[in-house]
Amino acid sequence: MESYNSFKVAQSQVLEAAKLLNLDSATCDLLMWPQREFTFTIPVKMDNGSVKIFHAYRIQYNYARGPAKGGIRFHPEETIDTIRALASWMVWKTAVADIPLGGGKGGVRCDPKKMSERELENVSRAYIRGVAQHIGIDKDIPAPDVYTNPQIMVWMMDEYETIVNNHNPGVLTDKPLQVGGTEGRRDATARGGVTTVREACKLLKIEPKTFAIQGFGNAGQRAALLHEEILGGGKLIAASDSRAAIYNPKGFDPKELVTHKLKTGSVKDFPGSEIISHDELLTLNVDVLYPAALENSLTADNADKIKAKIVCELANGPTTPEADIILYQKGIHVIPDILASAGGVTVSYFEMVQDKYSYFWEEELIHERLDKKLTKAYHTVQDAIKEKKVHPRLAAMVVGVARVAEVCKLRGWV
Length: 414
Ligand code: GLU
Fold this sequence. Notes:
Blueprint (H helix, E strand, L loop, with lengths): L5 H15 L4 H8 L3 E10 L5 E12 L5 E7 L5 H17 L6 E7 L7 H15 L8 E5 L5 H15 L23 H17 L5 E5 L3 H14 L3 E6 L4 E8 L1 H11 L9 E3 L1 H5 L5 E4 L18 E3 L8 H9 L3 E3 L1 H4 L1 H16 L5 H26 L3 H20 L3
Parallel strand pairs: 3-4, 3-5, 6-7, 6-10, 10-11, 11-12
Antiparallel strand pairs: 1-2, 2-4, 7-8, 8-9
Helix pairs in contact: 1-2, 1-3, 1-14, 3-14, 4-5, 6-7, 6-12, 6-13, 12-13, 13-14
The protein binds glutamic acid.
C-alpha cells in the first residue's frame, strides 16, 4: 500500500482545497501538518518466550474543533506516513459530518493474522501504556480500524483505567455494549455509507439493482446486509477480501456470505461463486461499487475501466488524485471517503456523549440521528460540488477544510 505515499496525497488534497478557499499561507501550513505526533516502540512478550519490539504511532493531526478522534490499525505495512494521511482524513471527516471533534489516527506495525489472542492482548495493552498520558475523552479518543475490533478496545480501556485509576469508558469507542459501548456502532460506518447511496440514488433517479464490495471486512459485510433495509434490495454480485474475489451474476445471499466469511476467514470457496481477479471486481458493470479495503485501490491504471454508476468509499483513501479526475470526467458519482465513511465516527461521538452521561440511548434514536447527520452532510457536499464546480472529493475537502480553518482563526492560531 505504500508504493503511493498516502501522506503526500493527503497533503496535496489539503493544498488544493486551501487554494480554492484562498487561505493564507500560515493556515495552509498548519493544516498540511499534524499538530502532534507520537512514535514509540513497544516490547511485547510473545508466546514462545521471546520479546519482540513493535513500532507504534499515534497522531493528533488537528484538535481545533474538538479532541482528536480516530482509529488504531494493526497492519504489517503501517508507517508514520500512512498514519499521518489517515489522521489528516479524520480531521476533514469529522468536520464534514459536523461533529465537535478533531482528527487523529494510530497504528502498530504488526501482522495480527500471525499472532495469538494473548499476543494481541499484550500488544494492545503495551500500546496504551505508551500513549496513556496523551489520550482521554477530552484529548484524544481512539477506536477500531483495520484489523482491530471491540475486544481490542476493551483490553485498551481496561489498561487505561488501571493506569489512571478511574472508571473511564469514554477514552475509546466501539466497545462492546456491556462496557460502555453504544447501540448501532458496529454497523455505523456501513449504515452511513448506504444512507448516502440512498440520497445519491434519489438525486440521480436510479435504482440500485446490483452492487459489488471490494473488502469484505466489518464495513463491507455490514453494507451488504443493510442494502435490503435501507435501499429495499439490490443484488450483491461480487465481493472480495485479501485472499480472493468472487462473482455470481445471480447474486449472493449476503447473510450466508457473511456467515461463510466469519467461519472460514475468507469469501473464497463460497458455494456457487466464480473466482475473478481483484481488478475485474472493481471494473464490473454494477450500479454501486463499494471500495471497502485499503488505500489506493482506484488508480490511474484502472479508473478508466470503472463502470459503476455510484462509487461509495467505505475505505479511507481508496482513490488516488489521478483516479479522482478520471472518474469525474467519466461522470461517475463518487461519494468520497470523508463523507461516505463518516457514519462510524459519528456514532463513536454518540458513544462518547452517552459515556459522559452514563445514560444510554435506544438503537432507533442512534439510527435516526446518524441518518440526519449523514443526509445533511451529503447534501452540503453536493451543494459545494455545484458551487465550486469541482470533483466530489475536492468539494468535501473544501467543506471540511473551511470549517477547521475558521475555528483555527477564531482561536487566534493563525
Ligand atoms: N476507524 C473509523 C474511521 O476511519 C472510525 C474512527 C472513530 O470512530 O474514531 O472513520
